[in-house]
Design brief:
Elements: E1 2-6, H1 16-28, E2 33-37, H2 43-51, E3 57-62, H3 64-74, E4 80-85, H4 91-95, H5 103-111, E5 115-118, E6 121-123, E7 126-128, E8 131-135, H6 136-146, H7 154-163, E9 169-175, E10 178-190, E11 212-218, H8 222-234, E12 243-248, E13 251-264, E14 267-278, E15 283-286
Parallel strand pairs: 1-2, 1-3, 3-4, 4-15
Antiparallel strand pairs: 5-15, 6-7, 6-14, 8-10, 8-13, 9-10, 9-13, 10-11, 11-12, 13-14
Length: about 290
């Protein structure tokens, strides 16, 4: 049985009509499924856990936040996951090449599934598909959430709002074979190439190579940071001289000088340090 979990808060319900269209396609083909909606933030964890008792595939309908909740509710149940990318960022769906699919193609993906392995990271007691981070991206997420009118230009507008006030910070990094200190504008352990709705912060990242990447934007100057963000939009970040990328095949620890706002898959949290590692087994996902 396939289960479908829709987050009606995603994009304030703007894509509900697409959900209904896909359900009509499934119904027209007499395709059985269980359908449920979340009722509040983080409710996807509970719903996915309950649904995993009767379903062997669970489809998260919404954005990256919904996907984050669903995998954390059912990853240990051995189910296969799918994504209907009806949120704002949809970066996990971009990595799986699901973001570009039409409603008809998404319905076909559910009815005639192709399954692949997808890596996940583990940090702060939860799984993640995108990143766990300190630095400017967390500030951008906060600025994005404060915008009264999101939309296609929301993330670039949030970036410009944050750049004017941003200050680099000191972090201590520890890996199995070394440890060092950095002053950075951004430091993250990432899994897939993008975050923030297609921003290429880890363009060389792959979702099925059994490794994560430690990405560090070393602080040089405001103008270098501005060039970094231009490079993010053009996919050339790794060519910037102040950017370091280190493969993480085991674990990585990052500690700030004190508690600060960080984020994991777009969810803002206050913490002082994180220990990130590759999740023990790949997830099974539709693509």
């Amino acid at each position: 049985m396939i289960g479908i979990i829709y987050n009606p808060l995603s994009r304030k319900g703007a894509n509900r009509h697409r959900v209904e269209d896909i359900k009509k396609i499934l119904d027209a083909n007499n395709f059985p499924y269980e359908y449920r909606e979340t009722e509040c933030p983080l409710d996807g964890i509970r719903v996915a856990r309950e649904m995993a008792e009767t379903c062997d595939t669970i489809i998260a309908v919404g954005g990256d936040g919904t996907v984050h909740e669903v995998i954390n509710g059912a990853a240990d149940k051995g189910v296969t996951f799918g994504i209907l990318p009806f949120g704002s960022g949809n970066d996990a769906a971009r990595s799986l090449h699901v973001f570009e699919k039409t409603d008809e193609e998404l319905a076909d993906m559910i009815m005639h599934p192709n399954v692949k392995d997808m890596d996940a990271g583990y940090a702060l007691g939860r799984l993640y598909l995108q990143y766990v981070t300190f630095g400017i991206v967390s500030d951008v997420v906060k600025a994005y959430q404060s915008l009264k009118k999101p939309g296609r230009t929301a993330y670039p507008r949030a970036v410009m709002k944050v750049l004017r006030k941003h200050k680099a910070k000191h972090y201590h990094v520890k890996l199995p074979d070394r440890e060092f200190d950095v002053v950075a504008d951004y430091i993250a352990v990432q899994n897939i190439p993008t975050c923030g709705g297609g921003l290429l912060t880890n363009p060389s990242g792959k979702d099925d190579d059994r490794q994560l990447e430690l990405v560090i934007l070393n602080h040089w100057s405001f103008f270098r940071l501005l060039r970094n963000f231009i490079a993010v939009f053009t996919g050339k970040l790794m060519k910037q001289k102040n950017v370091d990328t280190i493969p993480v095949t085991e674990w990585c620890e990052v500690k700030a000088d004190g508690i600060e706002c960080g984020s994991i898959d777009g969810e803002l949290l206050d913490f002082e340090e994180f220990h990130a590692e590759l999740y023990k087994v790949p997830l099974k996902v539709l693509h």
